[in-house]
């Protein structure tokens, strides 16, 4: 066989081998991949149920009852009308997904700003004030306790922050609470009857040592001075001396 014939034979053999190789390997390279779910190759897709407008518990039952998994429960701020209900879902209702696929729901926790009336909780017990704050769907950041000469132990003295009518749910409310008063109570500015009532409760005796003549009618019958001073230590049975105010007799007739 001459050189030309040998070359032609080699070309024909090479083309044949290349064709055979492509026929075998092409399906392995270009074939469309097949994905098999965790439920198996024969698992049929399912339809995502509509869970909008129902509670989270109801949504969970519907999702799990449809052979799906409740993956996440996320919160969003919204109006009072749909508070506590599912307002969004992912995937949306009607979507075809494999069995066991995750579904996320988004539920309404209510408005960002809630009613808040701090003046209505001043004077309440700390526990009752915290209950009222919870009723407004707000939360507390604890209590700060300080001594107070006239507000009983455990009662709310003030609130922080002090926003009238509404406050963001993101702002915690802290209570300033009275820890009581161990010394002589503050009597100045009180009426004689109120001062005596407080002292009786502390097992102390009040003695009026002077009725001082005053021109301010608003201070008539109130305590102007006291001895010992407020905050000083005392023993049950001690006497607290006070000076009270009295408008001069006939003073108004001169006009």
Brief account:
With 255 residues, the protein is of the alpha/beta class. Helices cover 23% and strands 29% of the residues.
Overview of the structural elements:
The structure is a single chain. With 255 residues, the protein is an alpha/beta fold. The chain folds into three domains: 46-108, Trypsin Inhibitor V, Chain A, CATH 3.30.10; 113-178, Trypsin Inhibitor V, Chain A; 192-248, 2-Layer Sandwich (Trypsin Inhibitor V, Chain A), CATH 3.30.10. Helices cover 23% and strands 29% of the residues. Strands 2-5-3 form a three-stranded mixed β-sheet, covered by helices on one side. It has a three-stranded mixed β-sheet with strand order 7-10-8, covered by helices on one side.
Instruction: State the total count of DSSP E strands.
Output: 13
Helix-strand sequence: HEHEEEEEHEEEEHEEE
| The level-1 CATH class of the largest domain | Alpha Beta
What CATH architecture of the largest domain do you see? 2-Layer Sandwich
Task: Count the domains.
Answer: 3
Strand order of the largest sheet: 2-5-3
In one word, what is the shape? rod-shaped
The percentage of residues in β strands lies in 25-35%
How many separate helices?
A: 4
Largest sheet: 3 strands, mixed
Class based on secondary structure composition and strand pairing: alpha/beta
State the end-to-end CA separation: 154 Å
Helix coverage percent: 10-25%
Radius of gyration: 42 Å
């Amino acid at each position: 066989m001459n050189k030309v014939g040998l070359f032609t034979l080699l070309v024909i053999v090479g083309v044949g081998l290349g064709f055979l190789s492509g026929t075998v390997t092409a399906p392995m390279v270009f074939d469309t991949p097949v994905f098999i779910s965790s439920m198996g190759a024969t698992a049929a897709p399912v339809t995502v149920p509509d869970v909008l407008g129902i509670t989270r518990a109801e949504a969970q039952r519907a999702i799990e009852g449809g052979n799906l998994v409740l993956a996440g429960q996320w919160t969003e701020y919204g109006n009072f009308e749909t508070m506590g209900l599912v307002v969004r879902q992912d995937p949306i209702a009607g979507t075809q997904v494999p069995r066991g696929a995750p579904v996320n729901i988004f539920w309404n926790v209510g408005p960002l700003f809630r009613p808040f009336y701090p003046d209505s909780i001043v004077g309440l017990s700390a526990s009752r004030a915290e209950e009222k704050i919870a009723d407004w769907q707000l939360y507390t950041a604890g209590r700060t306790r300080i001594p107070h000469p006239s507000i009983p132990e455990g009662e709310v003295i003030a609130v922080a922050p002090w926003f009238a009518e509404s406050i963001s749910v993101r702002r915690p409310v802290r209570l300033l609470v009275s820890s009581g008063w161990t010394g002589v109570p503050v009597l100045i500015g009180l009426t004689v009857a109120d001062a005596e009532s407080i002292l009786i409760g502390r097992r102390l005796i009040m003695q009026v040592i002077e009725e001082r003549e005053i021109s301010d009618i608003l201070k008539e019958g109130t305590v102007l001075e006291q001895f010992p001073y407020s905050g000083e230590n005392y023993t049950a049975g001690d006497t607290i001396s006070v000076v009270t105010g009295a408008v001069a007799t006939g003073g108004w007739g001169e006009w």
